[in-house]
Amino acid sequence: MDVQVFIGLLIGLATMIVIWFLRQQSYWRRRGIPHSKPMMLASLTTKHFTQILRETYQQFKGTGPFFGFFLLATNTALVTDLELVKKVLVKDFNHFSDRGLYNNAHDDPLSANMFFAETEQWKRLRTKVTPTFTSGKMKNMFHMVTAVGERLMSTVSAWIGDGDPQGLGKLMDVTDLSGRYTTDAIGTCAFGLECNSLSAETPEFVLVTNSFTHHRRHNKVVEGLIFSFPKVARFLRMRIMPQHVHDFYIKLVQDTLEYRKRTALRRNDFLDLLIDMMEREDADGNRIEGLSVNEIAAQTFVVFLAGFETSAITMSFALYLLAQHVDVQEHLRQEINEVLASNDDRITYDVINQMGYLQQVIFETLRMYPIVPNLMRKAQSHYDTGDPKYYIEKGTMIIIPTIAIHYDPEYYPDPERFDPARFTAEEIQRRPTCSWLPFGEGPRNCIGMRFGRMQTSIGLIYLIRNFRFSTAAETEIPCPMEKSSFVVSPQNGIKLRVDRVEDAKPIERL
Ligand code: HEM
């Protein structure tokens, strides 16, 4: 091709892209809907996304059920009205059953997991694995988690040793500790794996899984383009999973499947349910459609990813808040001791449910630090919100700003104050639905909520019964957040002083 023609075509294409981009940026203005300024990616390097959510929510709340927001080239509606939140997540879920995240089963198998999946694939997976997360199943897994809780306690005890020479308590990164604990709990409950993170010098599972949230394959610009133009990205065979994460999980699942087949082992755990869904041949040699090894690896990965860090960070922030509020910590310790004493110091599933104050502490922690700070949905069809001006066009991204709602003084007066009393049954009743969303809401809410709450509760019971947590000069208050991560996560871990509770009685397990 003639060089001049080629350059002309290139300029023409670039001009068209610029015109299209500018038109996208004027979308909300043309519709007369209040909107924030188009967000430059540079602002994400100076501010955490949660700060942008909180600032814009406060600025636009009350102007309508939602306001316009820009995520690179995607038109986004940021919802401020809780009635509309309920419609999107629950009542009219059929219009909003996708998260609008990028997945590419062909070139990037781990991305085709339940969290990222689009409606049809998601429905199939969710229906199949839901039975693993019922309260009956939780009771079965309970003793496995308490066994890890006991190891958590002995790990801390060994670490403290003879204590700090000045009697101040030993300095410990509780984020690292909690991550090791939840990884071991999920590994054993969901997959029958001994991850040995609590005892290992370098906890391989924690490091590999963390790589996805903290060390992304692409920078924010490339990632933004992938999410904005999924069809083009799929055509270009773009991947989002780091290579070593991919290799680790594919090998892990291949080896575990092979082992279960060889030993005919059946644990009725999450992995067995996925194995039941595998493609195979019937007695007549006909192929039965089902999950491939890659698809199983994707679900395994997402359960580790969604399950370990969320609960671990929740535990860490709970300890961080308890270290700053010694009265709350003492109150909690007293409740744990009293409830356990009334059950012969034996820990059971029902005992945890009797610890109302513990649940209040966890709920208030998740209000202040909702690990997933916003929920995402994508409109599958044109949607009428009831206000003719505020219709939602097919393809629009919807953001529910959980963290901004949690800090809205209309629902939580003096929102910067840590106050578990906000979560008594009466106080919860007083607030509108969808004003507390750390686990999402509706058919696509967190499938592992019961497990997450159970492992967080067990971890805290073992720690608070046996140790005292206090702040040190090294404790950063307020806690700086990791800007590169899309979950709420402490940038430098959380360092606290840990001291033994001298007269703590042992916890009995069944
Ligand atoms: C404190 C702990 C946890 C928190 C705060 C949390 C939070 C969340 C949130 C906010 C969502 C999105 C919900 C929505 O869009 O409406 C979610 C989804 C999900 N979570 Fe959790 N999670 C936790 C623990 C767990 C655990 C322990 C597991 C697995 C064992 C898990 C597995 C999942 C999965 C698979 C999804 C995707 C569900 C779907 O798309 O159908 N999570 N989680």
Short description:
With 510 residues, the protein is α+β, with helices and mostly antiparallel strands. It contains 20 helices and 9 strands. A 4-stranded mixed beta sheet has the order 1-2-7-6.
Protein model, in words:
The structure is a single chain. The protein is an alpha+beta fold and 510 residues long. 51% of the residues lie in helices and 7% in strands. It is built from 20 helices and nine strands. It has helices spanning 3-25, 27-30, 43-46, 49-60, 82-91, 119-129, 135-160, 174-191, 204-214, 220-228, 230-235, 243-263, 270-276, 293-324, 326-341, 349-354, 356-368, 402-406, 425-430, 449-466; strands at 66-71, 74-79, 170-173, 280-281, 287-288, 375-378, 397-400, 467-470, 495-500. α7 (135-160) packs antiparallel against α8. The radius of gyration is 24 Å and the shape is globular. The mean pLDDT is 89. The structure holds protoporphyrin IX containing FE. Protoporphyrin IX containing FE is lined by residues 114-115, 126, 186, 302-303, 306-307, 310-311, 314, 371-372, 375, 438-441, 444-448, 451-452, 456.
